[in-house]
Structures are given as C-alpha cells and as structure tokens.
Amino acid sequence: MANDQVKFQAIIAHCKEYGFIFPSSEIYDGLSAVYDYGQNGSELKKNIRDYWWKTMTQLQDNIVGIDAAIFMHPTTWKASGHVDNFSDPMIDNKDSQKRYRVDHLIEGFADELEAAGKKEEATTLLATMDSLLAQNDFEGIKNLIEEKKIRCMISGTANWSDVRQFNLMFSTQLGSVSDEASEIYLRPETAQGIFVNFLNVQKTGRLKIPFGIAQTGKAFRNEIVARQFIFRMREFEQMEMQFFIRPGTQKEWYQYWKDVRMKWHLSLGIPAEKYRFHDHVKLAHYADAACDIEYEFPIGFKEVEGIHSRTDFDLKNHQEYSRKKLTYFDTELNQHYIPYVIETSIGLDRTVLMILSEAYQEEDLSTADKKDSRVVLKFPPKLAPIKLAILPLVKKDGLPDLAKKILADCRGHFRCFYEEKDTIGKRYRRMDAIGTPFSVTIDYQSLEDQTVTIRHRDSMQQERIPVSKIREIVEKEIL
Ligand code: ATP
Fold first, then answer.
1. Top mutation candidate among 345, 351, 354 for ligand 1, by most atoms within 8 Å of CB
2. Closest CA to 376 of 457, 472, 473
3. Which atom of ligand 1 is nearest to the CA of 231?
C-alpha cells in the first residue's frame, strides 16, 4: 500500500469520534498542526511512553532516566548549533511534503550533473546559488530550482513551495520587564537537556561508560509544512536516549542500537516488512553516521525514529561555550576524554500514529442473510487504553452488583470500563472501536455459578470462565 489517503482520513475521523485525538482548541476552529489527546488517546500515548521507558531504563543495566525542563539557558542552543543551523532557507515539495534546505537540494543536483559529466554546468549552478543566497534572493533561488527542473527525490515532482528563511525554534521572553527580559527558546529536541546534565547524572549515579540517559518530553518546532495529522506537529513529544561511549567504539554501538531499536519495534507485533532503515547520505553537522527507522504508514514509508552517531559534537561544544569541563575519567584506560554519543530518538506522537495505523481495521462480518461490519482497533493488549470492559447483561436483578464486584477487584490492576446501557452487541462494537481486548458479560447464570462470558476482541470468540480467573487472563496478556 503506497499511499492510502482514504484509510488515513478514516483513521483521523475515527480518532476524533472515539475520543483519541482532537484538533487543539477546536471551538475556535483549531490551531494548525496542534492536537489534543482525548480520554482514549492519552491512555494509549501513556501506555506507549511507559513501554518505551520500561524497556529503555528498567530493563537495562546501564541506562537511567531524567526529566529536564523545557526552558534552557539560551546559550544551550548556540552550542548545539540550533540558533545557526535551524534557520536555513527551506523549500517544500508539495506532493511529498518533504522539506529541503535549498542548498542541499541544489548541491545534490549539482552532484548529479557532475556524475553525468557536466562539471561546468554544475560549477556555474553552485556559483549562481552562492550569489543568490548571499543576497537573500529567495525568489531567485526558487526560479533557479524551477529553471533547472530539480525534482524531489521522493515524489519525483518539481511542485515546490516558495523559499523561506526559517528558524524552526519558537522563542519567548523570560522575565516580566520587557527591556530586561531575555529571549529564550522552547526546546526543539529533548536531547540537549541530557547533554547539559551529563556530568550531574554520571557523578551522582556513579555511572561508568558505556551508559545511557533517557528522557521523554515535549519538543516544539515551528514546522512550515504541517498537514499530516499528528505525523508532523508544532508541539510534540520525543522519547530520546543518549548513550555515552568511548571514542572509537561508535561503529559497534551504532550497529548495536540499530538492532536493539528494531527489535523494540518488532516487539509491538508489527511485521518486519512494514519497517525499513533509511541511511542518511548527507549527514548533519554533528553526525558521523545516521539512519531513520521508517514505518509504512497509510501515507507511505516515513520516519518514526532516528538513530544518530553524534560523535563528541554536543559535549565538546557545551564545554567550549560553558567553559565547564565535561570530560569523563575512564579508570580502565586511566584517561580523561569527552565521550562519544549514540542517540536513539523516537517521536511519541508518530508512534501513536503508527500503532493506530497498524491497529485500524474495517471488517466485513456479513453473512448470507445479514449485512454487518465493524471497525476494530487491534492494539497489542499492553498498549490498549482500556483492558477490560465489564458489561452486565441487564441493569437489574443483582447483575450490576456482581459486575461492580468484578470492577472493584480489577480496577486497581488495569484500566477497566463499566457499562450497563444498550444491547450487548452495541456495547461490544464500541469496545472494538476503541480497541479493548477483553469484555466480560455478566448474565443470570453468573449469579448461579460465578462464571462470566469473556469475549476476545480480535477473534470475537466467547468462552465461559470463572469470575476468579478474569484477572489472571487479562494480566497474562498485558504484561
Ligand atoms: P523530519 O525529517 O520528519 O522533520 P527529523 O529528522 O527532523 O524529522 P529528528 O530531529 O531526528 O526528526 O527527531 C527525532 C524524532 O522526533 C523523529 O524521528 C520523529 O519521530 C519526531 N519528530 C520530529 N519532528 C516532529 C514533528 N514536527 N512532529 C512529530 N514528531 C516529530
């Protein structure tokens, strides 16, 4: 499935109808590329975050978690390169929504010309580009791209937006008196909160290299093209881990984390063919190797996670700008050095979208004499917002009493949902639509023999089980 806009739109509509995701401040017609998570979406998101956190900290020997502030000293973003490097002239391909730094786009085209033996044309092109950029002549740059018929490598089209000089960081003022207030930024990535705390954590945790620091939290980017639901937001959440290593060992650790992270993705029950690695050819200024893990969304293969070998770029720069020593003493080597870093950086919202895309299914349940269908979200049970629906068949004759006893027994262990209204068939469908893996129905027989009917979401199979077994059955599936 290359590009299934119909499915993508159906998922967006479903998310709104069933309390997963709403446009932010919708009563005021929303705010572009900003979304709110509803009662089911926030549970799903939290479960994904918790699963990542558990596998990346609790189940690791040498990785600890932190929670750094969103606001950071403004020099942080000088040192990290964001003040200078996050503000390039950009152009977007309207078909693929891929954004390019215009110099990268033109340089790439010049490389192609050279490879085709047109060295002179390539040199002239680069000289023209340099002169236009020097004059900030963005219209001229766009004309140049169009004149040369430079195409987007993803969509293959030359359908370009205007060129804009754009720093993706949001800024605001710290302090109440405007002329004394200083400009600070909303962090565009969580990673820098880890770098600036590197020594605090290493020393107080008495950590020895190799070790990692993990963090989840909000990041903000003033994205120009932001039309793909929660795939590209202006306020989003990242789950990042910086792994500090000896210089010279980055190749092995880069490969190690590529493998570990891919295994994590596969542990979500998503088939391997829905993933691929995309190696970066043109590397960011801080990296000596980088790749993306891409998932096949309904809108095509797109990045969910980045794995970057960041060398000592960040720590070295923070040491230089802060004039504080950020070296580590390696007792085995008897040597001080600035550690190298492998980063794994995954977007939580993109992971939510990935899980939703994978789970969403429209099933035709028609039989010879009856048309029927359902929309079901086949979430891995551990990620489902609600694990168990407790449904008394009728709201009288003591059935709700037994149902509430079951609720009292289970709700401290996992999230339950209790409902008395409507036919049981309608209630099952609603649970399918929000991805609840188990429903139990309490009927008259339950009062006699303390058994209930448990219904499995995916197979729709029903079986009779003792009330005393409910917790065990659900817990086995959600751990
Ligand atoms: P893209 O090329 O799609 O803009 P990126 O390469 O700039 O992404 P990174 O800086 O590597 O992204 O950030 C790590 C992860 O954070 C990405 O893999 C993605 O999952 C997530 N992410 C980045 N920008 C956004 C955004 N605007 N909205 C939602 N998630 C984002």
1. 345
2. 457
3. 29
Q: Confidence class of residue 185 from pLDDT cuts 50, 70 and 90?
A: very high
Distance, CA of 82 to chain centre: 21
**Token pair listed for 245:** 């290593």
Give the whole-angstrom CA distance, residue 124 versus residue 110: 9
The residue type at 477: E
Q: 136-176 pLDDT, tens per residue?
A: 789 999 999 999 999 998 999 999 999 987 788 999 988 87
Cβ atoms within 10 Å of 279's Cβ, excluding its own: 10
Using CA atoms, how far apart are residues 80 and 258, in angstroms rounded to an integer? 24
Spatial distance between the Cα atoms of 217 and 17, rounded to a whole number of angstroms: 27
Find the 232 Cα to ligand 1 centroid distance in Å.
7
Cα 97 to middle of ligand 1, angstroms: 13
Ligand 1 centroid to 223 CA: how many Å? 10
Give the torsion sign (CA, 98, 101, 106, 112). Answer: negative
pLDDT digits (tens, 9 = 90+) for 430-448: 999 999 999 999 999 999 9
